[in-house]
Amino acid sequence: MSSHTEHTEARDDAQGGHLTESREGGAVAVADDPFADPGLPPHEPRRQDVDERAAKRSERTVAFLFTLSMLATVGFIVSYVAIPIDEIVFIWPFGHVSGLNFALGLTLGVALFCIGAGAIHWARTLMSDVEVAEERHAIEATPEVKAHVLEEFRKGGEESQIGRRKLVRNTLFGALALVPLSGVVLLRDLGPLPGTKLRHTAWKEGSLIINEATMQPLRPEDITVGSLTQAMPEGLDPHSEDFNVEIAKAAVMLVRLEPEDIKDERSADWGYEGILCYSKICTHIGCPATLYEQQTHHALCPCHQSTFDLSDGARVLFGPAGHPLPQLRIRANDEGFLEALGDFDEPTGPSFWERG
Ligand code: FES
After folding, report:
1. Which contiguous run of DSSP H or E holds residue 108?
2. Which of 290, 304, 307, 325 to mutate to test the pocket of ligand 1 (most atoms within 8 A of CB)?
3. Is 306 in the pocket of ligand 1 (CB under 6 A)?
4. How confident is the model at residue 268, as a pLDDT?
5. What is the pLDDT of residue 2?
């Protein structure tokens, strides 16, 4: 018999597969059943398990870390009492910092780190590392336990007299039914309902399209093929209180495409000489989708990579957005400035609430 065979014994597993099991309790799968439970590998003692001097060294390391933690905690308390609150110190590479904050952070950090490091070292070198397999047992209770529980439940009901004292039972049900109403009333604190506000933006017929960078009205010649210009409607004051609310719905981007590159007829009609104006608010959860790839005419949202084809009605090509970017109808007015023909014909921004 070969030495390998001497150290193992064979057994058939439940599926008819074939395992070899080592004397130490470990088992390895053999080729005729690659899905057989390979079992636990044989336990290998660590150095500390067989060498008492190594175990003592580990013990001293753990004790050292815990002692350092104690000293750091004392240092924390001393720093708190001794360092004036307005003391500024130079610490490389942070520069000038509050001496008190630095000392408190450092000592507390060291105290916590040393407890953690000591515990890990203790667990890895001194605590038992023998692998244990915990067998699962059936979750369902036995019929006796079930019968016992039901009996206890019935007895509890009888003792509480809930069946006999109908007045108590009915008023209890009433109280339980009404209690959640207090939560409903608190919903009022969430503020007024949005009404139709989310369906309308600051764009209206004749609104000039303002370049967000220069704050000047845009002309068709300002929009060149290959560029992307971010814009907003005239009349929005960046210093006003509701600016953020309004710009979050009305922000747009303009691109110019060669007319033959525009695949969507409606999209071309809504633009002006190849200039298309889309909401730049991603229809996933509202990031600005303004990473523009001029060769493909794709606009990419950096948050979750939704990709829109601006040459094809801002159709979603990729990513979690569920809706194309709404397009704004534009034209050039008599003075040669670009302006809107009206508001968006659908809500801008994340589309999930529309489905609710
Ligand atoms: S917000 Fe644009 S992909 Fe998520």
Report:
1. helix 99-125
2. 304
3. yes
4. 95
5. 38
**Dist. CA 282 → ligand 1 center (Å):** 6
Regarding the beta carbon of 316 and ligand 1, being less than 6 Å apart is answered no
Instruction: Look at residue 165 in the predicted model and tell me its pLDDT.
Output: 87
Q: In one letter, which amino acid is 305?
A: Q
Domain 201-355, CATH number (from 3.90.1150.10, 3.40.30.10, 2.102.10.10, 3.30.930.10): 2.102.10.10
- What atom of ligand 1 comes closest to residue 285's alpha carbon? 1
206 Cα: distance to centroid of ligand 1 (angstroms): 30
Ligand 1 mean position to 316 CA, how many Å? 11
Contact between 209 and 330 (Cβ < 8 Å): yes
Dihedral sign computed on CA atoms, order 73, 78, 80, 81: positive
319 C-alpha to ligand 1 centroid (Å): 8
pLDDT at 21: 46
Q: Which residues of the chain have pLDDT under 50?
A: 1-27, 29, 356
pLDDT for the residue numbered 185: 84
Give the ligand 1 atom nearest the CA of 287: 1
Which pLDDT tens digit goes with each residue over 320-351?
Answer: 998 999 999 999 999 999 999 999 999 999 87
**Domain layout of the chain by residue ranges:** 47-125, 145-173, 201-355
* Structure tokens, 35: 């899905």
Q: What are phi and psi of 317, to 5 degrees?
A: -95, -30
Is 351 a pocket residue for ligand 1 (Cβ < 6 Å)? Answer: no
Render the burial of 47-86: b for 16+ CB within 10 Å, e for the rest: ebbeeeeebeebeebbeebeebbeebbebbeebeeebeee
Q: How far is the CA of 325 from the centre of ligand 1 (A)?
A: 12
What is residue 355's predicted lDDT score, i.e. its pLDDT? 55
Residues 6+ apart with CB under 8 A from 164: none
Tokens representing 52? 């008492």
